[in-house]
Design brief:
The chain is α+β, with helices and mostly antiparallel strands. It is built from 8 helices and 4 strands; from the N terminus they run E-H-E-H-E-E-H-H-H-H-H-H.
């Protein structure tokens, strides 16, 4: 049985949980999940560090194979378990999706992360509201690029849901929730109608509900 280490509120663990759901794999039946990280601890124990020396979640065990880095785990899971061909196999669509996965990890999330951690993980007395607002407004600009991509297509790599939509949608969810919860601190959220339509398709046509968050909580 697959074993997944990580708490449900982690964006990177949510990527994996969502992907597993798309593949028809159920927690408790097809894989085991162990809460780890933040108040759950466990991620600095010798047992965990032997699996992942970074001490971060998610970490995936599948037999003798141990993987960390969330996007790598996603790529492995569809290569190994996508028997029903949930995700497009066309190489052009695959790499259109891959570029957005790398963009999410290397460009968008580092910017949004400043606002997200500043407002949900940092005690109020220690918050740098200038940096938080700047990061959120910067994310507005970055997501405008995704909105433009979605002008003439349904999903990040074409008209079919693909792996790249998972990390993108989880970031967009946090972008929306931050503004709903802390509008004065984030400043205005840019109206991006193509992203809004895409998120509605995500909610209606995928297993997004397994990780959907309706509120942000610093204790998660």
């Amino acid at each position: 049985m697959i074993r997944l280490w990580g708490r449900k509120s982690s964006i990177n663990v949510q990527k994996v949980l969502w992907c597993l759901a798309e593949l028809g794999l159920e927690e408790g039946k097809d894989f085991e999940r162990i809460d780890a990280g933040l108040h759950f601890g466990k991620n600095r124990t010798p047992e965990f560090l032997a699996l992942n020396p970074n001490g971060l979640v998610p970490t995936l065990e599948d037999g003798d194979l141990v993987l960390w880095e969330s996007n790598t785990i996603l790529r492995y899971l569809i290569r190994q378990y996508d028997q029903s061909k949930r995700f497009p196999a066309d190489i052009q669509k695959q790499y259109q999706s891959e570029k957005w996965m790398d963009w999410q990890l290397g460009t968008m999330w580092p910017t949004l992360r400043i606002a997200f951690l500043g407002l949900t993980r940092t005690p109020e007395i220690e918050r740098n509201y200038e940096a938080i607002r700047k990061a959120y407004q910067g994310t507005n600009g970055l997501l405008a690029l995704l909105d433009q991509q979605l002008t003439n297509q349904q999903y990040c790599s074409g008209d079919s849901f693909n792996l790249g939509d998972i990390p993108l949608a989880l970031c967009v969810s946090r972008w929306l929730l931050l503004n709903q919860t802390f509008p004065d601190q984030t400043g205005p959220r840019t109206s991006l109608p193509n992203i809004e339509s895409w998120m509605k398709r995500i909610e209606a046509e995928t297993q997004y509900s397994v990780v959907a968050e309706k509120e942000l909580n610093i204790m998660k």
